[in-house]
């Protein structure tokens, strides 16, 4: 219809310009305005709108300024409302920050004036219709086939795993891949701020937290959902990310028969992840001694998978680390696999190699009892 109107009333406009105008009108009415082509571009993984005049994108791990722009702040606000309204969220001066998701699962964060001095800011972490599988991560050199084989055995043998890393390091992608190893006959409960995990098992219950209403009431936190999930007869609990007091409930769940649980957290190293968990448990308001907290952590968590985003934009699993228990007041960690960076080539690409430590994990018997017997080569290939 748009094309027919333009054809009838704007014959003086060149054909290519008419097609461009038609596409822009369609995107404005049925899509998300100027950023619609960026959302449709499979090579773009992230979109960052910094006010109406500046839109950055991430492509192949590198940031670049796009040629997309909005008319003004109101135009950006209109697109934000179009994103958040369908899922019952709102954004205004009384609540100037919001987390949301697009229909395809892409994660959206928006923050507006007066908190943002550059105008409305939108960050979209795109979600791909075909989730990455472990073969894709091996192809991207995120990990080796031996590391993949080991991780698969750990998930299937119901070990409790934490995926740690910095912002944009690929934690959620890795968590999605780990989830794909869960057998199809298990009941899985996922808990997230904005649902973005894509599990293909038939028996999955997805829970999503809820912000307070306009009166400041009715908020449902991740911690509330973790507690409720324990009463839902889960075989596995997957928490998209632990940030606060829900860490205590998650650890208690792991320690009380809900093994095989998975979660992610922000940290700079496996050791730092443990420190962050201690802080999160204290945020739950429980006056627990540090030693008691560490004992909870060391008995609950079996494995930490640490992922990093390198200087060239590539993502690597840099540590696979076993949590072995307590020695005195210290939690003992043992690296099983590491990524060792050796330099940068002429094109700016990071050079390095994956190295096993040569150590077999203490929980190797649990894997074997569960039917997953790993060859010695898994822990020794490329050792020397």
What does this protein structure show overall?
- It is a single chain.
- This protein has 384 residues and is of the alpha/beta class.
- It folds into 2 domains: 95 residues, Beta-Lactamase, CATH 3.30.450.90; 246 residues, 3-Layer(aba) Sandwich (Rossmann fold), CATH 3.40.50.
- The protein has 13 helices and 15 strands.
- The strands form 2 sheets. A 9-stranded mixed sheet has the order 9-8-10-11-7-12-13-14-15, sandwiched between helices. Strands 3-2-1-6-5-4 form a 6-stranded antiparallel sheet.
Strand-helix topology:
Blueprint: H1 2-9, H2 15-30, H3 36-40, E1 44-50, E2 55-59, E3 62-65, H4 73-84, E4 97-101, E5 107-111, E6 121-125, H5 134-139, H6 145-156, E7 161-165, H7 171-179, E8 188-192, E9 204-208, H8 222-229, E10 236-239, H9 246-255, E11 262-266, H10 270-283, H11 290-300, E12 303-309, E13 315-327, E14 330-344, E15 350-356, H12 364-369, H13 377-380
Parallel strand pairs: 7-11, 7-12, 8-9, 8-10, 10-11
Antiparallel strand pairs: 1-2, 1-6, 2-3, 4-5, 5-6, 12-13, 13-14, 14-15
Helix pairs in contact: 1-2, 8-9, 9-11, 10-11
